[in-house]
Write a structure and sequence with these properties.
The protein is mainly α. 79% of the residues lie in helices and 0% in strands. It has 17 helices and no strands. The radius of gyration is 21 Å and the shape is globular.
């Protein structure tokens, strides 16, 4: 039996809860960044090991688990995939607070990363089936703003908790809310028809496509290939900068943990507003030309390099106060239009798998290597630059924003004969 349409009120409620889950997703992922310095002192770790804990341990296994969980979400009720993923990763986050060595913490982060990979692809697929194309970029942008709201909570509350009760308490506090949200999803969500927001006759009975068919389709679309390159470049830069932002403020600007946490939190308040505003703007611009779903991220990425250089290289508190909120907004502001474009290119029964592939491509290098590379470069420069080694390592990461801008622009204009599709025509897997 076909699923019934989701009432507007329930649709708004579901988007709100999914956004809160993405907030928890970001908190549980990034709480490590806030407590890197206390962990380094207690466990006697190097910057390379910190990069491995905060990025590599999470990102690689996030990528490995992402594809099977995305395929599962295209075959079963997505609300169940989301609820189970949230419950597991929340418990694993709390377990990080019990770690007594590098390898214990590493394995706990592996478990968090693997579980977290299940929720975002299923959530974006669900949102795509809740909202029509004319308002899809804005809805996805609201969801993506959760990443910045997560960092507001992480740096404001996490730094306060860690500075008073220790770094272990930060992990305990981060893990509890997810369990409650998992119960809400399991008991109150309704599953929308796949493709129900695209046409009067949704594709609810269509068989899910295989992984090979999805890969072949994505590889056949020239703008998608360049878009993945852009997303990966942005992810490497963003994760590298975000991971060590707290350490940078402590080392180069001699702030306290609480001061740095509050400053970063305020920066991400601005970022959350910017992400939502860009999504709404994209909904208007694509009515004229759908390539604005790629042009707009290109223009935003162009700002990434100069803003990063101002933030990291100018030894001025004013430069930090002005540039940090803008730098914080650069990566997240790209993803509302980009993910909307990507979802519009594939069949409804491919959407969760497509998003899992996007997350794998983006995060295997982004989360897996972004923080690790910045940590390695910082250690290499340590002998000559001292505590400023991290400053220069972060500045070099900003170059990747320029690479992303070029790839996005190429994506929008790589083939003038190629018509950006708002929905894939009928095809067989």
């Amino acid at each position: 039996m076909a699923a019934q349409p989701i009432p507007k009120g329930l649709r708004t409620y579901m988007l709100t809860v999914l956004t809160l889950i993405y907030v928890i997703n970001g908190v549980d992922r990034s709480v490590m960044w806030v407590v890197l310095e206390p962990i380094k002192r207690e466990l006697v770790l190097t910057d390379t090991e910190l990069g491995a804990l905060s990025g590599f341990a999470f990102g690689v296994f996030y990528a490995l688990a992402g594809i099977p969980l995305g395929m599962l979400a295209d075959r079963v009720q997505r609300r169940r995939v989301i609820a189970l993923a949230v419950g597991v990763w929340s418990a694993m986050t709390a377990s990080c607070g019990l770690a007594g060595s590098f390898w214990q913490l590493f394995m706990a982060r592996v478990a968090v990363g693997a579980a977290e990979s299940g929720a975002p692809p299923a959530s974006i697929s669900l949102i795509t089936d809740l909202y029509p194309k004319k308002s899809r970029s804005g809805a996805i942008a609201v969801y993506m703003s959760g990443s910045s709201l997560a960092l507001v909570l992480t740096y404001a509350m996490g730094s306060w908790i860690a500075s008073r009760f220790g770094w272990r308490a930060g992990f305990y506090a981060a893990g509890i809310p997810g369990v409650l949200l998992a119960l809400l999803v399991w008991t109150t969500f309704r599953e929308p028809a796949r493709g129900g927001a695209d046409a009067e006759q949704p594709a609810a009975r269509e068989s899910p496509a295989g992984l090979g068919a999805t890969l072949r389709l994505l590889a056949s679309i020239p703008p998608v290939r360049w878009m993945f390159c852009a997303m990966t470049s942005t992810s490497v830069a963003a994760v590298g900068l975000s991971t060590f932002m707290m350490s940078f403020l402590l080392r180069s600007h001699h702030m306290t943990l609480a001061q740095a946490g509050m400053l970063i939190a305020l920066g991400h308040v601005f970022a959350a507003c910017a992400i939502t505003a860009v999504g709404r703007l994209a909904d208007r611009l694509i009515l004229r030309d759908e390539r604005w779903n790629l042009r707009l991220p290109a223009l935003i990425a162009c700002l990434g390099l100069p803003l990063t250089l101002v933030l990291t290289l100018l030894d001025s508190p004013l430069a930090v106060y002005v540039a940090l909120p803008l730098v914080s907004a650069v990566p997240g502001s790209q993803y509302g239009p980009v993910y909307s474009f990507l979802q519009n290119q594939v069949r409804p029964t491919m959407r969760a798998t497509t998003m899992s592939l996007a997350y794998v491509i983006q995060n295997l290098l982004g989360i897996g290597l972004g923080s690790l590379v910045v940590g390695v470069v910082s250690d290499r420069l340590k002998a000559s630059q001292g505590d400023d080694s991290l400053r220069y390592a972060m500045a070099l990461a900003g170059i990747l924003y320029l690479v992303a801008a070029l790839c996005y622009w190429r994506s929008a204009h790589c083939d003038e004969k190629y018509r950006l599709r708002t929905m894939l025509p009928e095809a067989t897997p």
